[in-house]
User: What shape does this take?
Amino acid sequence: MYFFTADEHYGHANVIGFNDRPFADIEEMDEALIDNHNSIVKKGDRVIHAGDFCWYKRYYDKNPNHKDVSSYINRLNGTHVFLKGSHDYWMPRNKSIQIWEKMIDGHYLVVCHYAMHTWARSHFNSWHLYAHSHKDLKLSGKRHCISVENTNYFPLSFDQVKEVMVDRSNNPNFIKPEDRNNAK
Assistant: This one.
């Protein structure tokens, strides 16, 4: 099973106020996010994190309250793929990925921290999952925000993504199959 999530911001106190999160402090937020995650994600599941996973202790940060990123990852069920977001200073610059693409059950998914106007195979109605905005941007087409604020602080399963996409309009650059066949 695949799950998708983003903008967890583990260890980031200011995100609580910036995004009106319903938590009293970092500890409550971190524990709720971990509990929510582990309540639905099982050991063999794959989780795609679309950026801003953790407010990691930067090399110049002397704050002893900031935890190491592994202290979060080690507590989460599943096998993880981490995409680079705007706050992922813990990720090696030369080894981080920004876009994840995969065909799942006949649906092509493109996941990125940032919302895109077009993406791989969007003209064939592929699906785009994004984050960064911390809310749904009400964009047309087969796109959906997977920031935790937009998913009730739980990862979304692939089945939940399918349910969302059923009601979405065609992508703005969608080419109908009959038009593809008639193209010269």
Residues 134 and 147 are 5 Å apart (CA to CA). The first strand starts at residue 2 and ends at 5. The chain has a mean pLDDT of 91. The helical segments are 14-18, 26-40, 70-73, 158-166, 177-182.
